[in-house]
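ok trying again, last paste got cut off:
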Amino acid sequence: MADDLPADFSIDYSVLHQVRENMIELAETAGSGGASGDYRDLGEANAGERKAALGHDGLSSAFNLFYTMSRTRVKEAKDGLEELGNLFGGVADGFFNVDSQLAQSAGASKAAGNLDNWRADTEAYEQWERDNTAWGDYLESIGVPDGDAADPDFSLHEACSVDDPPGYCEQWREDMDAARAGDGERPPENPGEAPEKPSETPPTRWEYTDESGTTVVELELDDNNEIVKETSTVTTTDGQKFVSETVYDGTVHTVEDDNGRGYTFRDQTTTTTYADGTTTTSETVYTGDPRTVSTGEDSNGLERFAAFQDYTVTTTDEDGEVVSTTEVVLADDGSGTMTITEDGKTTEYTRSGPRASWEEK
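nice, full thing came through this time. structure:
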């Protein structure tokens, strides 16, 4: 269900979808006059065949009149049944499309988050490998026995703090003194046990299934494991389907905050196929330069930043006609305006900062 509905109001659009299917099936039956079997065969027969079957001209004529009248009345219901079925279906598809967009957005965030976590875990493991290699090479260079070097808990500080330290401690102390004096690098330290090694293959699929249906997000990556295509598919157990495909193939815009964290904005094209089979295409184009602004400190005293950039979104239908446009223009403090034009109506929104909500003017 859509999140903006009151808590005491709910619509099971899967039931509405089933009602539509039942209405259309009933309309198809009505289109045939509602008759079947011997009754229909006799009603569709010619006068001679009916008389031969019933054995009397008057009975044959009376049956023909009854059959014709009943079939006409039933057929008159066909258009009404189809219209009502389409009404139920339109409501079902409308709510399903809204929920699917929410599910698609959440799923895409989960998939991207899983990829980010894999990148972080991979970098952490590779850093441990580098640190462990440096540690092993240093121990070998100063003559630490292999048995001590293989101990994941071995510490030069502890080994060289005893009354009668091993011979290699002399070189270690000289290296430590040189580092303190600024004449060399500090000797490496034991990196400890290896962290769990992440998969060599990045995660490119996220899936969630419950009693209502399934949401699947699939990612395509380039050689640097950056997302170049994202496909989200939402299906219900009743057969409704929503597909959103985003291709990141435009200009890349990057910026770093004062903490050295990088942010990327990339032009993109999204093609959406709704439950009724119609499609729209939205092109997002970023303009100007990306910027960052401080949003205060976190609980650890680290300054936090928000990144943003001006952009426009143009949405077209299957015929290439413009359905809507969105233009976002932001100031250096993250405040700004958002102008949406749809169905000939223009609505303007403003926000006071990068974390503030958009409010209609």
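cool. The radius of gyration is 35 Å. The chain has seven helices and 13 strands.
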